[in-house]
């Protein structure tokens, strides 16, 4: 029981870099057993009413949302109307979202962090010199005081990036969500979020977010997800997170203190 939502999807209707048509999205979402999808469009959602009508026929809950580029990386925003002015300033964005009763998620916060140079540019840290060596250090980033949740399963991230986010979310009193970040048909549902009980509409969805009644999940049955197996195991608590996952040849040294140990800080949803 429960309701599966993909919290992070881009379509051609509001994201110039997406090839995913709304009709394809609805077909894929149903096929993957999703109850709903969040359209986290880069440039806002156009013709939202038309899409809602379409979704109603397909018996799927479509949540209008945004993915906003800010000075502290990408943020998924739920529960506001229109595209807020001055949103690049996260503190300002926080005020707008709080006033509207909305919800903010730090999207793929540690993307690229473990890549070798020059592919290791992070949106959260200006220079690799300042990259956090441990999840504890990463948890002190000012962004995390300003959001309600962290995206710990992102279908376009590496398993390592997601594991690190999972670990950081476990240290913070924040929600932890999953989404696919799909920009095409193939990625839909790669990451998703399981809500307790039923979610009947957008209002229910927002209330469930605020209630924290959810947990992140890794999608199954998609070939691109082999790398996320360790993330799924960590979420399910079946195995300790393999600290070997943090070994890498990139700019960031592996936090040796964590090697070979189960997580010290269990995520709050366990
Ligand atoms: Zn993004
Ligand atoms: Zn995205």
Task: Give me a quick take on this structure.
The chain is an alpha/beta fold.
Describe the structure.
Helices cover 26% and strands 20% of the residues. With 270 residues, the protein is of the alpha/beta class. It has a single domain (3-258), classed as Alpha-Beta Barrel (TIM Barrel), CATH 3.20.20.140. A nine-stranded mixed sheet has the order 7-6-5-4-3-2-1-8-9. Helix 1 (22-31) packs parallel to helix 2 and helix 6 (159-171) runs parallel beside helix 8 (229-236). The longest helix has 13 residues, at 159-171. The two termini are 17 Å apart.
Average predicted local confidence, pLDDT = 83
At the fourth level of CATH, the homologous superfamily is: Metal-dependent hydrolases
Derived structural class: alpha/beta
Bound compounds = zinc ion
**Level-2 CATH architecture:** Alpha-Beta Barrel
Termini separation comes to: 17 Å
- Most strands sheet: 9 strands, mixed
Give me the count of strands. 9
If strands are numbered along the chain, what order do they take across the biggest sheet? 7-6-5-4-3-2-1-8-9
Overall domain count:
1
In which range does the helix fraction lie?
25-40%
- How much of the residues is beta strand, in percent? 15-25%
Instruction: Write the element-wise H/E pattern from the N-terminal end onward.
Output: EHEHEEHEHHEHEEHEH
Entry keywords:
8 helices; disordered C terminus; binds zinc ion; alpha/beta; 270 residues; 9 strands; single chain; TIM Barrel; nine-stranded mixed sheet; globular
Fold blueprint:
Blueprint: E1 3-9, H1 22-31, E2 36-41, H2 48-58, E3 61-70, E4 73-78, H3 90-99, E5 103-106, H4 135-138, H5 143-146, E6 149-154, H6 159-171, E7 175-179, E8 191-195, H7 202-211, E9 214-218, H8 229-236
Parallel strand pairs: 1-2, 2-3, 5-6, 6-7
Antiparallel strand pairs: 1-8, 3-4, 4-5, 8-9
Bound molecules: zinc ion (2 copies).
């Amino acid at each position: 029981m429960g309701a599966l939502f993909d919290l992070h999807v881009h379509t051609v209707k509001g994201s110039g870099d997406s090839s995913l048509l709304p009709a394809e999205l609805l077909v894929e979402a149903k096929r993957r057993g999703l109850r709903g999808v969040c359209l986290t469009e880069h440039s806002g959602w156009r013709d939202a009413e038309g899409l809602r009508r379409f979704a109603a026929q397909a018996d799927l809950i479509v949540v209008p949302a945004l993915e906003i580029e800010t000075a502290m990386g990408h943020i998924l925003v739920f529960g506001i109307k229109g595209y807020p002015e001055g949103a690049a300033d996260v503190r300002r964005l926080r005020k707008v979202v709080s006033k509207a009763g909305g919800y903010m998620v730090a999207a793929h916060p540690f993307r690229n962090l473990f890549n070798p140079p020059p592919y290791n540019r992070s949106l959260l840290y200006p220079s690799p010199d300042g990259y956090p060596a441990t999840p504890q250090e990463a948890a002190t980033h000012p962004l995390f005081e300003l959001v309600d949740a962290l995206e710990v399963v992102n279908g376009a991230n590496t398993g390592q990036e997601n594991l690190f986010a999972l670990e950081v979310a476990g240290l913070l009193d924040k929600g932890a969500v999953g989404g696919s970040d799909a920009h095409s048909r193939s990625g839909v549902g790669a990451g998703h979020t399981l809500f307790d009980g039923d979610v009947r509409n957008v209002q229910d969805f927002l209330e469930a977010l605020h209630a924290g009644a959810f947990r992140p999940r890794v999608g199954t049955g998609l070939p691109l997800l082999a790398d996320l197996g360790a993330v799924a195991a960590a979420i399910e608590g079946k195995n300790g997170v393999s600290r070997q996952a943090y070994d890498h040849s990139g700019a960031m040294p592996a936090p040796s203190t964590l090697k070979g140990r189960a997580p010290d800080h269990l995520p709050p949803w366990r």
